[in-house]
Every structure is written in C-alpha cells, then in structure tokens.
Hints:
Layout: H1 2-20, H2 24-47, H3 56-64, H4 68-76, H5 78-93, H6 100-104, H7 108-118
Amino acid sequence: MAIFKERAVRAYERARDALDKGDCDWAVFLLEQALQLLVKYFLALRIGYFPRTRSLSRLLEEAGELDPGFVEFLREHRDSVAFLEDAYVSSRYLLRRYSRDEVERRLHLFGELLKLVERHEGD
Length: 123
C-alpha cells in the first residue's frame, strides 16, 4: 500500500517541476492526482480498499468517516477541491488553460493532507 504514498509524493514533485517549467496545465493535473493518491493510500491503510471513484471530494468524504480531520479539510478547502476536480476533467476533455497563480494557491493542500494522512501510519 505504501506505493500509493510514494506515487502521491512523486506526482506532487512532478507538479512542482511542471510549474517551475511554466506548464501550469500539467501541474494542476498532477496536483489533483497527488491528492487523490494520498487519500487512497489512507483508505487502503485503514480499511484495505478505496472506492472506485476519481472524485477527490468523494474520497475525502469516505476518509472523513474514519477521521473527522478529512471532513474538516474538505470543509476548509471545498472551493479548491472543486477547482482541482474540474481541472482533472478539463485536462482530459476540455480546452482550458490554468495560470501559475491558480496552481500556486493550491500547492499547500498536499502538505496539509500529507500531515493528516501520516498521523495514521503505524496505527
């Protein structure tokens, strides 16, 4: 299950690399993927599986049933989570460009979510 966390960290690192190179579209896609993988890691760690969904908010809601910290995270960052979900869909199916500012304002979400997830390692 640790592979999900490893992939999440690598996706976040690649998101930062893409942003540094000015590829904001790829950066926002990778950031959303990093967050999804972190929540899937948490769910796999705690209950042995995760729902087959690509909805970050749905994954956070599911995680919130096990730790209210995920509910609080979603409540505090609902707009950013919705933005990232839209970015995931748009990156695949729509012609939408993202700005550096839009991505930079959301990078901190990874660190916050990582701290929340790491509280459960070793449980």
